[in-house]
Amino acid sequence: MKIDGTLSHAISGIQRGLGSARQHAAEIASADQLGAASPESLAGPLVGLIQDRLQVSASVQVLKAADDMIGSLFDDKA
After folding, report:
1. Do residues 21 and 54 make contact, with C-beta atoms less than 8 angstroms apart?
2. How far from chain centre, in Å, is Cα 60?
3. Distance of CA 38 to the CA centre of its chain
């Protein structure tokens, strides 16, 4: 895989994770406003937030690895 493809996949993963986190946060906020904040109604969005955090974290690690790879290539050329 080319490095630019890796970078775009990592950025896409970060964007997906953040978008999904916004959606889950909105679900939690709306459940609380409607008075339906039972543990059962909040469990799904809370688990989703944890998954979103893992998605963003994994994508950031991919981005860091690609950055390190680019740095190594520049060091070898110098």
Report:
1. no
2. 8
3. 27
Quick check: 69 and 7 in contact, CB under 8 A? no
pLDDT digits (tens, 9 = 90+) for 66-76: 888 888 776 66
Which positions ≥6 away from 60 have C-beta within 8 Å?
10, 14
Q: CA torsion angle for 25, 59, 6, 74 (degrees, to 10)?
A: 130
Q: Give the pair of three-digit tokens for residue 4.
A: 């630019």
- Report which of residues 58 and 35 the model is more confident about: 58
pLDDT at 52: 98
Would you call 16 helix, strand, or coil by DSSP? helix
Kindly report the pTM of this predicted structure. 0.79
